[in-house]
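As the next step, I selected for study one protein, both as residues and as discrete backbone shape codes, as given directly below:
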Amino acid sequence: MRMNILGLEVSTSSAKTIIYSSDNGVVDVQSIPYPSEVCDVVSQDIEGMYGTLIECTKKILKDNDLNIDAIGISTTWHSLLLLDSDKRPIGRLRTWADTEASHTSKRYREDTTLSSEFYKKTGCVIHSVYPIWKYMHIKAEDSATAEKARYLSSQQEYIFERLTGERAVSKTMASGTGFFNINTLDWDSDILNFAGLDKRALSPLVEPTYFAPLTEEAAREMDLASGIPVVIGGSDGALNQIGAGAMEEGIMTLSVGTSGALRLASKVPVIPQEPSTWCYYLADGKRIAGAATAGAGNCVEWFVKRLNSHSGLGFSELEAHMEAIDRAEAPIFLPFLYGERCPGWNDERQGGFYGLKGEHLIGDMYYSLLEGILFNLYHCYIILTEVMDIPKEIRISGGITNSDIWLQMAADIFQREIITSQIEHASIIGGVALALNAMGELESLDEFSSPMGERIEPNRDMAGHYRRRFEKYLKLYERI
């Protein structure tokens, strides 16, 4: 039976909608960036975010006269929205990019016993990215706001409740909060006591395939029929794994977009001895272990728009300037312009070019920039593969796929074959897969497949070069 799934996604910068046919795949995709007053990256006006999503939904439905059989939701991990006793928002939603709680989380992280116990329970490092530490910071610095808060919410929970009238959070989303026990797959009572929270302040936990009917009010807003099943879905990182067809163990997804991430599905929690990588809930009882970096495409954008703004050179022109450089003599770039997530979780870590000389030109610096971003990811890869098997396959996605040179650098640094993905919107497609599974159209998430693109083979002659360069990078990382 043919099914049409409407996928809804809210990211850090835009709202996106997709119509997916179980017979023919993607029918249409629409995206609307948030106005500047709605989102400044670190925070969002929740009503403005929801309004943009509704606008995007109405646009795609107007352009495509199709019956919708189900709705799937995709949102970002690690957002925090405080609600009052009437479930009205208190201020703006804080996104994963909000590091205001950095000094609060740093203080708790210095307690090694607490840090270790928290990590083993949650799979989350003590860091400002996680909602628990954002909340602890608010309690410490803004007690008046904390006292008004009766409920803790997120992008996913707010959207799901607006669409269905039901309060719930998927275990996938909850696993990225710091309140969730990755071993028991439930809210952790010890952590709630530590945070001074009653369990009723958090939403009831459900599987990411859980669904409820679209309300009449939401249906009117979206120009849809009421009663359509709304599948709660999960977060972008987990849904990327599902959308890329990588639920099977041994398939690593490597995303290099605004930030960077690498992930592997696992049947059991994967918690290294020292806090470094993370472990969240995926779906179907599986976990997802991985690492996320703060600097990737945002560093490239900084270089092109700020450091290189006077020359007006575009990406292809900058890559052309790389051809004549001596790569062995290029400076080393540490990609921590926006602090550090994995592997060191240090908001105060700084980035920049090291070993920069007067004879270095724009091509040397651009090469170092691309290399440093990949070195950060490779550093995480080494740590992750020390506690998990070496992946049998690496699938890459994101802005990096627009650059043949950068893709080849990735294959050469990892010394692995890298496979590009032909799927452009893996996370929202992951939400669609959950909806198909929830509706019985897809028997198992393991069955969902993604078309593969180009295979990039590593240049074995470059292995020694990058090994020496990476050793320099690590020495600088440890020293600075």
Summary: The longest helix spans residues 362-387.
